[in-house]
Predict the structure.
Amino acid sequence: MYNFDWQTFWNYLWPVTAFQNPLLRNGLIVTITVSILAQAAGVILGLFAALGRMSKIRFLRMVAGAYILYFRGTPLLVQMMLLYFGLGVMNIYDFPDIQLGFFTISGAIQAGFLALAINEGAYMAEIVRAGIESIDPGQSEAAKSLGMTPGQAMRRIILPQAIKVIIPPTGNEFNNMMKTTSIMVVISAGELFFAFTQINARIFKPFELFIAASFYYLALTSIWDIIQKRIEKSTEWGYASNKANTVQNGEAKTIKPPKTFDRLVRGH
Amino acid sequence: MTTRKPNTLSTRSTQVIVKFERVNKYFGALHVLNDINLEVLKNQVMVIIGPSGSGKSTLLRSINHLEKVESGHLFVNGKMVGYIEKDGKLLEDTDKNISRQRMEIGMVFQRFNLFPHLTAIENIMEAPIHVKKTSRKQAEEEAMQLLVRIGLTEKRDSYPNQLSGGQQQRIAIARALAMKPSLMLFDEPTSALDPEMIGEVLDVMKSLAHEMTMIVVSHEMGFARAAADRIIFMDEGSIIEDTTPEQLFANPKEERTRLFLSKILH
């Protein structure tokens, strides 16, 4: 009968003791950083892929369509190994380490990030497209009738409305992303789960260590849940819901969109 | 006949603002615009009536190229809309050129289509600032004048979902007027409104009559009587009658016009 080693379990679960191990400390940093960057890149890629798919230009539609088809239709694990090992062996690109001051960003981390971002972009494309298509076509007609070009109408009228539809599923994507970074273990990128497998190789306590590892991911996704709820609440501005517009003391209360959002999306 | 309005076409400007030359459009097998020939003169107020599916909205929407046409020529202010002619063939114009042409043509929709993420005044200022590149200060001044004109100054910072249907439609008219169009198109502007709100919108429209060219798809016969110089009746993609409201109501030439009028003039 296997004896659960509580000592080891607590040791690697409790951040104060666990983070004395540089593998874990760096692993957590890599997991969080790669998640955020890959999700951000995925959103941008997805936006362009979605616009490409809806473009008037046939070539753009085809390129975007092929991208989405391939990266949604094949396993991320395969894509990641193909990118890291395949490109290297073929002498196309072998992901050299990048030195940034005190940090070294290993080739594996770069490849992992890239695979995650490209894969995410294909999923985000569908989310963005659904968001854009959810907007009443009358909005685009009204914008055009005022002399806006299709691009202006998209940027200033459609996207600022679509973003409310896009945000909730994007939050779920990010939740997924944080967990999915763990498959970077197959290319030995030094993220959180890789750190746990390294420690396991030394002390062989897979049960204790991997439960501890799972709790780290649980903590990350739980924190994100709280942040996501706040974000979704802050996007309930103005027209969003009648809840946000209840008349209080005879005065209509309206939540204004955050200024940063205005600058980002509508560009003034 | 009333003498209240400058009614006879002959005394008015003869400058042609909108011209249809043998315009045809199909939705599949359906011939929605059947060889339309039409001239609308400067500052004329023209009402279009007809049963649903008669092509009246399509005719209106083709004027600012929200609908494509299959053949024929369509001019606004002497320029072809949405198309360029090359070797006798019609090719669609660039987005940029089409957008520029639309700046001179205001449009008001049945379902208002206000921008829900912008306040009333932002809705009005949006196009002047970002399409016409007017300064924010000037755009705001002009928007305030428009709000005074439509009687909604106190709603300047309200979002569309805080406004009644009638108020939304008045803001939508102001939004179109902010681009200072020479031609205004109204696509059933009161048919999505509760009855008690129709009057306030029609009043704003009446106040615009003869300041600019107006083409109005509407079954508001009260408006036609009070403000229109001209009324056309459409059926099955064709213009059946083209006359003054008084003439049309008093003695419609065609049997189907009479039949249609008897249905809407309860």
Notes: Chain B touches chain A at residues 64, 66, 95-96, 99-100, 102-103, 105-107, 109, 111, 113-117, 119, 126-127, 130-132, 157-162, 172, 175-176, 179 (CB under 8 Å). Confidence is low (pLDDT under 50) at residues 6-11 of chain B.
